[in-house]
Design brief:
Oligomer: single chain
Strand content: 15-25%
CATH superfamily: HPr-like
Order of helices and strands: EHEEHEH
CATH architecture: 2-Layer Sandwich
């Protein structure tokens, strides 16, 4: 298991577009990934769960990835969250 704290980079928060890009990448990776906010944890393969975190700009999330080559996947998914995609 690999974990990392990340900050939401999008100026509008982790809204539908960046969440969909993240979920697609998480699903394509074949790894189990979760995002945890202050009050909730979301399955990284579910757009509705990720949107349910309602993560605003600059908010900290805990990203966890489990599976083979998890460090590389963790890095790739973290970059998607931290990117200013607006």
């Amino acid at each position: 298991m690999a974990e990392r704290e990340v900050r939401v980079g999008a100026r509008s928060g982790f809204h539908a577009r960046p969440a969909a890009v993240f979920v697609r990448a998480a699903a394509d990776s074949g790894h189990r990934g979760t995002l945890a906010g202050a009050e909730r944890t979301a399955d990284g393969r579910s757009v509705l769960a990720v949107l349910g975190l309602a993560a605003g700009p600059g908010e900290r999330l805990r990203l966890t990835v489990t599976g083979d080559d998890e460090e590389r996947t963790l890095e790739r998914l973290a970059r998607l969250i931290e990117a200013d995609s607006d």
